[in-house]
Amino acid sequence: MPKTDVIIPEPPELTSPWRTEPRVRLQQEARAFARDVVLPIADELDPQKAEMPRSLIDQMAAKGWFGITIPAKHGGMGLGVFEYCLVSEELARAWLSVGSILARGQGLGTQTLDDRRRLELLAKSARGEWIGSISLSEPTAGSDLAGVRTRAVRDGDHWVLTGTKRWAGFAQAADFIEVLARTREPEEGEPRSAGLEPFLVVKQPGSFPKGVTGRVIDKIGYHGFLTFELELDGVRVPESDRLTGLYGDGGADADSGGFAAVQRGLNIARVHTAARAVGVAQAAVEDCQAYLQEREQFGRAIGDFQALRFALADMAAEVRQARAFWRQVAHLLDEGCSAESETAMVKLLATEMAVRVTSQAMQLHGGNGYTTERRVERYWRDARLTTIFEGTSEIQRRIISDRLLPRP
């Protein structure tokens, strides 16, 4: 059965207290777009490890989805983390990278020192005309961001950046790259993160600026955009492009600069990852629903066998549980709670769930699941990554346990 024959049903119903008519319409619009536009593109391009076309990004921009969390006064939709994750789950159901590209808007790369420029960039971000890449990690600094070694040295009214960055997704196609660099060494008594600041490297889409070279990292999944290791050799950044914080903050004014401003962005990123993981797992459940009724053995549909029915039931229950959890945590963030433990918990549980569910989906597909003829192998490859990026499962466990017990 060709991949395109699988029908994506209507989205799981929003229930009280999360249900509002605007949210229902937004969810239905996102799922229809995922079914009719994203899924055929994913089926064609993912096996080629190809990038999503700019026309697809433009269609999402026209719907306003790059500005979901940007205030309406700046041209955005003025909605919250809940709606942002709601759309992302539906898009990730078709292709994880499309559910992820929305994070490259939402005010990312707008926290400049110049107020007028910040407002201009917020409006561009809301329109999908200011889509970026964020470059935090390095070959020796991933989970331990305080170990970043890339240097930023002041030279008059510019900063000069030198170092190696890794896992910079969408870096070549982006309008800019946010780079975390060290401006000074920590002084005695300061945390190791002291002296780390984000810088905005502006560039033309499709190329790298002077002083930046990129090597494509050959991933096993998460196709749709390329991921790079970057070499920065004397990249000049004006002082006006030193940023007050990392990640988009929905247009809110940052009042804690540098490394300290990362935390809220990371919390949003973690619940966003949980929602994307739920989308991938939901896809696996729905594909299994179709396959168990289509595939016959011993003269009957394999969906008639109790062991397989029960396996599907467990999968569906785990997905529903994780969805309820990310919605609760997104609501907490929208209410202004820091929710650091909760975001770590939902990221941990939802992503580990996605790995289990997509692995079970491959098992239910038997030999057909181990081919590229079915989508379940894509779901499994992509789900596996969700336990790694935005903080590994081990890092989430450390965050949670450090808030439950004294630190050793």
Determine the CATH topology of the largest domain.
Butyryl-CoA Dehydrogenase, subunit A, domain 3
Major sheet, described briefly? 4 strands, antiparallel
The CATH architecture of the largest domain comes to Up-down Bundle
Query: How many E-type strands?
Result: 9
Low-confidence stretches: 250-258
Radius of gyration: 21 Å
Reading off the top of the CATH hierarchy, the class of the largest domain is best stated as Mainly Alpha
Proportion of helical residues: 40-55%
Output the CATH homologous superfamily of the largest domain.
Butyryl-CoA Dehydrogenase, subunit A, domain 3
Strand order of the largest sheet: 2-3-7-6
Distance between the termini: 55 Å
Whole-number count of domains: 3
Number of helices: 10
Strand content: 5-15%
User: What structural class results from the helix and strand content?
Assistant: alpha+beta
Mean pLDDT: 92
Overall form: globular
Assembly context of the chains: single chain
Question: Would you list the SSEs in sequence order as H and E?
Answer: HHHHHEEEEEEEHEEHHHH
Describe the structure.
- This protein has 408 residues and is an alpha+beta fold.
- The protein has 3 domains: 3-104, Acyl-CoA dehydrogenase/oxidase, N-terminal domain (Butyryl-Coa Dehydrogenase, subunit A, domain 1, Orthogonal Bundle), CATH 1.10.540.10; 132-256, Butyryl-CoA Dehydrogenase, subunit A, domain 2 (Beta Barrel), CATH 2.40.110; 262-404, Up-down Bundle (Butyryl-CoA Dehydrogenase, subunit A, domain 3), CATH 1.20.140.10.
- The chain is 43% helix and 14% strand.
- The protein contains 10 helices and 9 strands.
- The protein has helices spanning 21-45, 54-62, 81-94, 96-101, 115-126, 262-294, 306-334, 340-364, 376-386, 393-404, and strands spanning 132-135, 151-155, 158-169, 176-182, 196-202, 212-216, 227-238, 296-297, 300-301.
- It has a 4-stranded antiparallel beta sheet, with no helix packed on it. A 3-stranded mixed beta sheet has the order 1-4-5, with no helix packed on it.
- It is globular.
- The termini are far apart.
- 47% of the residues are buried.
- Residues 250-258 have low confidence and may be disordered.
